[in-house]
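[agent] plan:
  1. take the single chain provided in the ticket
  2. run structure prediction with default settings
  3. attach structure tokens to the ticket
  4. add a short note for the reviewer (M.T.)
[agent] executing step 1
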Amino acid sequence: MITELSILIPTYNDCCLDLVKELQAQAMKCGIDFEILVADDGSTDQEVFVRNQKIAFIEHCRMICNGHNRGRAAIRNQLAKEAQYHQLLFIDSDMHLCRKDFIARYLQEEAPVVYGGVTIGGTKKEKRCNLRCQYEQTEAWKHTVDKRKEHPYHDFHTANFMISRDLMQRYPFDERYRRYGYEDVAFGKLLKAHDIPIRHIDNPMLFDTFEDNATFLSKTEEGLRTLYQFREELQDYSRLLLKVKQSSRSMLLFLRRWHRHFGKWERRMLINAQWSMVNTRLFPLYKLGYYLEYAKRQSSSANP
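[agent] step 2 finished; step 3 output follows
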């Protein structure tokens, strides 16, 4: 059984004071040696930044403040270097606890890498009007424990996982992934390449903090640009890239032209997000079209 634990939380414009208090209370109850390190990666929301400073006054907790944004991969590597205990538990700052035995459950595990999963919340209004909530609810069935075990390296996310410090320092996150998206996918691929097993368990964090629709679409588009940048490396780890690979040239041409003519209309529909049944079908079409059109523009600029 694990007797010491470093709980590591990267944050950017998210207030995680309540999350830290709950984690601290659970860890205290378990009677282990522990620390909670929160690293602010150059937050621009001053109100959130000031509130998070209170974390430094909680017992066993410490704040690390970067003056600039280092990126999603680099901030996690920084936390791993700062940690003092052998086992590292990474948690995203926009998550919430939904189990009273969350820490205790992880202490029973001694696998090299353990992923607890995520459960999706949301109010009735969010399920009706929020695109991120609609998307996550629709995709939730793909991320049950049994489904994750079918493809353990493909279904790995950084929101809630435990790893040994030695392993993390030996195989850090790829810091080329500075912008939104896919640093967790690349990390799963790295673990597979070195035959490091991932144990999938049912010990989820609750995700119920959803950005507005326009912000979510912008983040999605940024993620698709990241995917294009690393498309050769992620070829077998992306459902979208697999769909592109399996589609005929005529179909891809049709989808790209469709996006060119109707992409702005699709985007307005998705931002409005009043019809969940429409959006769950329209969103994948928009993502695929956006990727194909972006890839075409990049190819044209590289070969004028």
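[agent] step 4 note for reviewer: The first strand starts at residue 4 and ends at 11.
[agent] ticket updated
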